[in-house]
Amino acid sequence: MFDTKTRTVVIVGAQWGDEGKGKLVDVLAERADWVVRYQGGANAGHTVHIGEDSFVLHQIPSGILHGGVRCAIGNGVVLDPETLFTEIDELVKDGIDVEGRLYVSDRAHLVMPYHKLVDKESEASKAIGTTGRGIGPAYEDKAGRRGIRVVDLRHPGRLRELVQRGCDTANMRLERFGSAQRADVEQTMTAIERVAPRLLALADDLGVLLHRAVKSGASVLMEGAQGSLLDVDHGTYPFVTSSSTTVGGAATGAGLAPTAIHAALGIVKAYTTRVGNGPLPTELDTELGERIRKLGNEYGATTGRPRRCGWFDSVVVRYASRVNGLTGLAVTKLDVLDTLDRVALCTGYRVGDDVLQEFPADITALEQLSPVYEWMDGWQQSTESARTIADLPRAARAYLDRLESLVDTPIRYVSVGTRRDQIIDVAPQG
Ligand code: IMP
Fold this sequence. Notes:
Blueprint: E1 8-13, H1 21-29, E2 34-37, E3 46-50, E4 53-57, E5 70-73, E6 78-79, H2 81-93, E7 102-105, E8 109-110, H3 113-126, H4 135-143, H5 156-176, H6 185-202, E9 203-204, H7 206-215, E10 220-223, H8 247-254, E11 263-269, E12 272-274, H9 287-295, E13 308-310, E14 312-313, H10 314-324, E15 328-332, E16 342-351, E17 354-356, H11 363-368, E18 370-377, H12 394-407, E19 411-415, E20 423-425
Helix pairs in contact: 3-4, 3-5
The protein binds inosinic acid.
């Protein structure tokens, strides 16, 4: 993926999240100098399997598992300090050296304990099916100009004023939800003062560091979280997360100029999953959906919730390709389909007499349409040991060829298992 001209690459989910971004970041981080998270927060759960070990990273970029790679949490992320330090301590216990390799933007906003309270209590009325990590309320405070940024930890007096304001807003909302829970200023101050020195030690002006790195020819991998269909603008609003998950958000959320981005790799599963509520046109609410869930171990890495499963939806991924300007696709979990006797690709949405080819904004329409499927033979052979496209069964190759032409974006990688080595690089570089 990286070469002399392509130095900054964004990894972005092109469905509803959980596409296997962690694995691709892990594979590509080998050639990267920096790996940067640009949005979301501890709602993400990026899983990386190395040998017998598996790591689930919620806030720290997956590149941390490669010694020597610098990792950064950008200004677009909402950072939960408590879970960040739990994650760092666990990595250190597992022998991963984090010291001096992890940077946090001093402009990143903090997820406070009261954001998590509000997130959980607001679910009763909103029913988005959030992860409960305080993500939405933290971004609401950011947009409401009352958020707390990492840099604010430098000034205890100002910090107290901001915490007071944050607690007041949270308490107003908790009262409105009919919750008996309340945010407490002293408790919040104690919690934040406990982590402040450690967080400030990681804080830096990340935009400057990345700008210098890019100028000196470093390769930068931007690690998106969630997926394009969960983007606050382009996703199935209001059943979305609160950040810009798409490539446009990578520039804003890392503090790098959009013109510094050279390529965007869209990660897709060979089928579709979604966790939480909201439209999922190709959902299989059947025994087959249950079978795919079991075969693919489709349970949320952050919340453990069962994921909803369905066929690959080329309307969705074509849309994601356009919005993100994808230069390539990585198709993951092809092996999950190995035992099926036939497989389907959704090619359009039937609404009355019309067949839609573009993903609609209207979620009522999305709930009412019926997907148009193209059926193909299954391959009924294991693909797990394939390391080149030629190693794949003919029917699997035909499936990928059709998927590629429907989405109109070249496939660059195919993942055929959870392990690092279970990957096909379609166009390996020397
Ligand atoms: P929030 O990001 O916790 O506010 O949740 C909003 C929506 O995004 C819910 O439907 C979540 O299930 C979904 N979501 C958030 N993070 C992820 C993720 O990392 N993978 C998949 N879905 C996610």
